[in-house]
Amino acid sequence: LQSEHPELWPQVVLVDGNGTLHPRRFGSACQLGVELDIPTIGVAKNFLHIDGLSADARSLKQAFQQAAAPPLEIELSNADTVYGMAVAPGGGASGATNPIFVSTGHRVSLRTAVDIVRKCSRHRVPEPIRVADQRSRARAREIEAKDSTD
C-alpha cells in the first residue's frame, strides 16, 4: 500500500489498546508501530495496573469527578518514568469524568498523542476507535445471526 498508494498510507494510527502504558512498556500500539514503522498512539478505555505506579482506576476517576474545569489530564508516572496520561477528552462541562488512557506507541511524543486524541474526540473515545468498535460489533452481530439461521 505504501509504495503503490502513498496517499492512502496513514500519518498516525490510533490503536484500541496500550502503548508504553503497559507492564512491559510495550503494548499493542508499540508492536504495530514498530512492525509497520508508522506513528502510533495507544488509547485504552480501561486502566492497566503497573507495578510502581501509585495511581489506580478508582482514584483517577475520583480525581476527574472533583476537577472543576478542563483540561482534565493526569500524568501517569513514577519517580523516573512517564507511562502515559489519563485524559477526559470531553472535559468537565460535558460530564466526561471517566478517563481514557493515552500513551505513546511509536514515533509520537506524549503531548502530541494527547493533542491528537483530543482533536479526534467528540465523545469519551476518539472517533476512529469509536467507529471501528461500532462497525466491528455490527459485523459480529451479522455473522452471529447468519450462523444461527444456518
UniProtKB/TrEMBL annotation:
Keywords of this entry: Cytoplasm, Endonuclease, Hydrolase, Nuclease
Listed Pfam families: Endonuclease_5
Biological-process GO terms, alphabetical: DNA repair
GO cellular component: cytoplasm; nucleolus
InterPro entries attached to this UniProt entry: Endonuclease-V (IPR007581)
Top-rank taxon: Eukaryota
One GO MF term attached to the UniProt entry: single-stranded RNA binding
Localization per record: Cytoplasm
Transmembrane segments: none
Alphabetized PANTHER family for the sequence: ENDONUCLEASE V (PTHR28511:SF1)
Name of this chain's protein: Endonuclease V
Lineage of origin: Eukaryota, Fungi, Fungi incertae sedis, Zoopagomycota, Kickxellomycotina
